[in-house]
Structures are given as structure tokens and as C-alpha cells.
């Protein structure tokens, strides 16, 4: 029996959403069903965030998602916190709240958690490895920029 | 859907459509409700009516699944004892439909985007449940007591009804290119209908009816490129709507969610627009001043426009010229100049 997982990564005001089917047999590759990006609506921020909340909750409910994995906030390497980072955290918080509102299990993974759960290489190495992706996934191949969201799904499956 | 049918008291008539009449009602559970009564067409023989009735009552199962903030909730459906009518009871939306807004004139861009956002969320949910609407038009978008737009009349139109229904129910203009060529409806035909709806809301009845009726030209192909736009409608809006109305369904947006994304970045300057057969006037309030643009259409070939700003009543300041046509110009020239003017103001 297959499960349905969604991996979500927020960068700036863009939300990358990878939706996948997880076969019951752990040897079978994960099937990517869709790879999309939601953008924050231009204009006033509060209603735009409210819309994003509704979109996220609707999506998870309507597509009968069984597990959501969201990439955790992280401090930038060697730099101070800028406003863009805070804006991104606002969006991430809204996505987390929307996912939690559906009663679907929600996991928040940092890169360190992914590394602990999955394989023996660093996450960034997997993200660059084209061959790795072609063997681990079937269906629509995610965009390179969406591999991190797909990685969340692989890590959740391995856990 | 409720399995217990509460006591229902019918009130005044709210409207009439292809399938029957709609009344305001009161039931003991939901309070104010809208009650649609579908009556057997006198020309339908017993077999045809029975087939319709059975199909419709089977669809009731779909309607019960269509529970969403942006879809008008159907509470229950019942066949009346006379055997010649079915009535269904649904949430009452006191804001009425957008047909009246369309008839009143162009809606501001921001309002259209807000409505589109609501409707697309509802449509995306229906599509995710494997359902089609098949009847998206201003008259089927209803506004509830909180100002939320909802898709109404879901589930009434089927593929075998669509052309006959469309010709009589104001839906003809919303029928997608491939349906005219004999193909069935799909998510993509709902997206087409939504694109047509957005175009109509942005332009209002007077402007819309000045062009040939879409239903008379869609089947010829190239419809999206034949649209005439009010000059204040920004190019990103046009690109989105044209893509929704592309003849080639594979080049349209695949999902309602993709349309939502496309609309997320369109500009929404707050021009209010009044269109009459001979003139168009735009107004935009910026802090304590109002910008006004007037386009006068003296004849088919003679047009002129001017734009100025002036203080709001009760505030200080003087009138300031913002632009104008160099005397009388042709239509195309006036449109181009106005488009440049609006672009420069955004």
C-alpha cells in the first residue's frame, strides 16, 4: 500500500512543493507526482499570507496527503540576519501552521536531521548528484531547485 | 449532506435560470437558504424526464462532496411528490452573483483578483476530487455575507447538455474551442471558462458587448488574440487570460493552482472605470488627490483623451495636467497612447 508524502522548502517568498507516492516496498523508487512552486501574492502581506495558508491546507487535504515534511529555518553561513531571511521565516511559519491545521503528521527537518536519517553523504552532495536522482525516483523528475524538497521525502521514508 | 430533510418555508423568488427558479427559503436547521426548483420541461416526455432525474439525483452524491469555503454548499436534494420537479436547498449568498457587477461595468483589478483567487481555490479543490464544474460564468459566482466568492450551480451541467444549455443559459461564450470541435469537457475547459469570466469582469457589459459575441468566433480559432482590452488592463493580466483562452488546451494552464500562481504577481492598480458607448472615464485616488482619465469616442475614427489630477474635495491644491492626445486621433492611436499612459502611472 503506497503512502502519499509532500516535501516543502521555503526560500524567500517562494514555496517549493514536491508531492510523491511512497511505494510499500522499500526497494521501489519514490514516484514524483508533482513539483510545483507557490508564490506569495503581490500587494498587502497579511492577506497574501492568509491565502498561502488556505492554499497549503487545501492542497494537503484535497490530495489526501498522509505526511508533510518541511525544511527547518537555518541561520545563514557566516552572515548576519537580514530582512529577507525574516520574511522567509514568516512564510515558513504560515506553511507550518497550515500543514498542522489539517491533522496530517508534520515533520520539520533540518539538514543535519536529513544527514542523520539518510545515506552516508552530506545533503549537498546528494543534491548535485544527477545519477542518484535518476535511480531513486520515478515519474516526473523534480527540477534541480526542487531536489531539496524531494530529499525531505527520501529522508522521511528512510526514518 | 443532511439525511434528515428539515421543514422548509419558501419565500420570494430570487431568480430564474435554465433549470428552473430559485427562491429564498427558511429551514429549521440552516436558517436562510436558497432553494432551486428544477421543473420538468413541458416538451420532455416521461422517458427523457426520468433519465434526467435519475442522472441528476445520482449527481447529488457529488454535490454532497463539494463542501469547500469557495463552493456554495448544497444541503439536501429532494424529489417533490408531484413527480415533475426536484428541489435542492443550498446556502444563501446575500451578496448575489457577479452578473450584476458585470452588468454595472468593469470591476477594479484588485477586486477581480480577489474573486479569482477565491474561485480558483474552490475550483482547484473540485478538480482534485475528480469533478468538473462546466458552468463557470459571472452569474455562477456568488458572494456570501463575509464577501467571500463561491462557485455555485456545480454539478448541473453534463457533457450531453452543454451546447443546448449554453445556448440558453448565457454560457455559450464560455464554451472552450475544443468543445465547439466536438471534444468533451475537462479541467482545461473549466480553465477556459474561468478565463472568459475574468475577461468579462475586467471589462463590464458595455465594452464586452461592443465586440462580436465570442460564441460566434471561438470555433474559428485564434480567439485569445482577437480580444480587445481596456487600456488600463496591464499586460501581465492579458498574458494570463490569453493563456487561459488558448485554442490549444495543452498550452493552457494545467491546473487552477497554476492560474493562482500566475495571478499572484499581476499588478493591481486601483482604477475605477466607467464605460459608456461614447466615453470611458477612469479615476484613481492617491493620498489626497484623484487622477482622472477621460477617453471620448466621438465617432469610429475620431477619438481624444486627456488625463489630469485634482485635489479631493475639501483638500487644497490645484488641477494638474498629466497627459492628452494631440487633438483628434484614430482609435488605435488613442488606445496605444492610453496604454502607455497607464503603464507610466503604475
Identify the notable features of this structure and list them briefly:
heterodimer; A: 159 residues; alpha/beta; six-stranded mixed sheet; 43% helix; 25% strand; B: 346 residues; alpha+beta; Phosphorylase Kinase, domain 1; Transferase(Phosphotransferase), domain 1; five-stranded antiparallel sheet; 11 helices; 35% helix; globular
Could you give a short description of this structure?
Chain A has 159 residues and is of the alpha/beta class.
Itemize the secondary structure elements and their pairings.
The complex is a heterodimer of chains A (159) and B (346).
Chain A: E1 3-11, E2 14-22, E3 30-39, H1 45-62, E4 67-71, H2 83-101, E5 106-109, H3 111-117, H4 123-128, H5 130-136, E6 137-139, H6 147-158
Parallel strand pairs in A: 1-4, 3-6, 4-5
Antiparallel strand pairs in A: 1-2, 2-3
Chain B: E1 8-17, E2 20-27, E3 31-39, H1 46-65, E4 74-79, E5 85-91, H2 99-104, H3 109-128, E6 141-143, E7 149-151, H4 162-168, H5 177-180, H6 187-208, H7 214-217, H8 223-226, H9 235-244, H10 256-264, E8 272-275, E9 279-286, E10 289-297, E11 303-311, E12 320-324, H11 331-345
Antiparallel strand pairs in B: 1-2, 2-3, 3-5, 4-5, 6-7, 8-9, 9-10, 10-11, 11-12
Helix pairs in contact in B: 3-6, 3-10, 6-9
| Poorly predicted tracts of residues of chain B | none
What strand order characterises the main sheet of chain B?
1-2-3-5-4
Instruction: Please compute the radius of gyration of chain B using only Cα atoms.
Output: 22 Å
Cα separation of the termini of chain A: 18 Å
Helix vs. strand class of chain B = alpha+beta
Element string of chain B (H = helix, E = strand):
EEEHEEHHEEHHHHHHHEEEEEH
Radius of gyration of chain A: 15 Å
User: What's the CATH H-level superfamily name of the largest domain in chain B?
Assistant: Transferase(Phosphotransferase) domain 1
Per the principal axes of the C-alpha atoms, what is the gross shape of chain A? globular
* Main sheet makeup of chain A: 6 strands, mixed
Sketch the major β-sheet of chain B: 5 strands, antiparallel
Shape of chain B: globular
Distance separating the two termini of chain B: 48 Å
Amino acid at each position: 500500500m503506497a503512502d502519499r508524502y509532500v516535501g516543502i522548502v521555503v526560500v524567500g517568498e517562494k514555496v517549493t512543493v514536491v508531492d510523491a507516492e511512497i511505494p510499500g516496498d522499500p526497494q521501489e523508487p519514490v514516484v514524483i507526482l508533482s513539483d510545483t512552486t507557490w508564490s506569495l501574492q503581490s500587494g498587502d502581506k497579511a492577506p497574501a499570507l492568509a491565502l498561502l495558508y488556505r492554499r497549503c491546507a487545501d492542497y494537503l487535504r484535497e490530495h489526501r496527503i498522509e505526511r508533510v515534511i518541511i525544511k527547518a529555518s537555518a541561520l545563514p553561513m557566516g552572515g548576519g540576519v537580514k530582512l529577507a531571511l525574516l520574511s522567509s521565516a514568516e512564510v515558513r511559519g504560515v506553511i507550518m501552521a497550515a500543514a498542522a491545521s489539517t491533522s496530517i503528521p508534520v515533520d520539520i527537518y533540518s539538514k543535519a536531521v536529513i544527514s542523520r536519517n539518510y545515506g552516508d553523504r552530506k545533503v549537498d552532495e546528494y543534491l548535485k548528484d544527477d545519477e542518484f536522482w535518476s535511480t531513486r525516483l520515478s515519474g516526473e523528475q523534480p527540477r534541480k531547485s526542487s531536489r531539496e524538497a524531494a530529499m525531505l521525502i527520501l529522508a522521511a521514508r528512510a526514518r | 449532506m443532511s439525511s434528515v430533510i428539515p421543514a422548509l418555508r419558501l419565500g420570494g423568488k430570487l431568480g430564474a435560470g435554465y433549470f428552473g427558479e430559485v427562491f429564498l427559503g427558511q429551514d429549521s436547521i440552516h436558517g436562510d437558504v436558497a432553494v432551486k426548483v428544477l421543473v420538468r420541461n413541458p416538451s420532455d416526455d416521461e422517458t427523457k424526464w426520468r433519465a434526467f432525474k435519475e442522472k441528476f439525483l445520482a449527481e447529488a452524491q457529488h454535490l454532497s462532496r463539494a463542501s469547500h469555503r469557495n463552493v456554495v454548499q448544497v444541503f439536501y436534494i429532494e424529489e417533490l411528490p408531484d413527480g415533475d420537479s426536484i428541489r435542492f436547498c443550498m446556502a444563501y449568498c446575500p451578496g448575489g452573483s457577479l452578473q450584476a457587477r458585470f452588468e454595472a461595468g468593469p470591476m477594479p483589478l484588485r477586486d477581480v483578483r480577489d474573486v479569482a483567487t477565491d474561485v480558483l481555490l474552490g475550483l482547484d479543490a473540485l478538480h482534485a476530487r475528480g469533478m468538473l464544474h462546466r458552468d463557470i460564468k459571472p452569474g455562477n459566482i456568488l458572494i456570501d455575507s463575509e464577501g467571500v466568492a463561491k462557485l455555485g450551480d456545480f454539478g448541473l451541467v453534463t457533457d450531453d447538455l452543454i451546447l443546448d444549455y449554453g445556448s440558453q443559459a448565457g454560457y455559450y461564450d464560455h464554451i472552450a474551442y475544443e468543445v465547439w470541435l466536438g471534444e468533451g469537457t475537462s479541467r482545461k475547459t473549466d480553465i477556459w471558462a474561468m478565463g472568459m469570466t475574468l475577461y468579462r469582469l475586467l471589462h463590464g457589459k458595455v465594452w464586452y458587448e461592443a465586440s462580436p459575441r465570442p460564441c460566434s468566433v471561438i470555433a474559428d480559432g485564434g480567439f485569445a488574440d482577437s480580444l480587445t482590452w481596456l487600456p488600463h488592463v496591464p499586460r501581465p493580466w492579458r498574458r494570463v487570460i490569453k493563456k487561459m483562452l488558448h485554442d490549444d488546451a495543452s498550452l493552457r494552464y494545467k491546473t487552477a493552482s497554476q492560474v493562482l500562481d500566475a495571478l499572484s504577481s499581476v499588478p493591481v492598480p486601483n482604477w475605477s472605470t466607467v464605460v459608456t458607448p461614447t466615453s470611458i472615464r477612469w479615476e484613481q485616488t492617491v493620498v489626497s488627490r484623484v487622477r482622472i482619465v477621460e477617453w471620448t469616442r466621438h465617432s469610429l475614427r475620431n477619438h481624444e483623451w486627456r488625463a489630469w489630477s485634482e485635489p479631493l474635495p475639501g483638500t487644497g491644491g490645484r488641477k494638474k495636467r498629466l497627459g492628452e492626445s494631440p487633438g483628434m486621433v484614430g482609435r488605435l492611436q488613442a488606445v496605444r497612447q492610453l496604454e502607455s499612459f497607464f503603464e507610466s502611472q503604475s
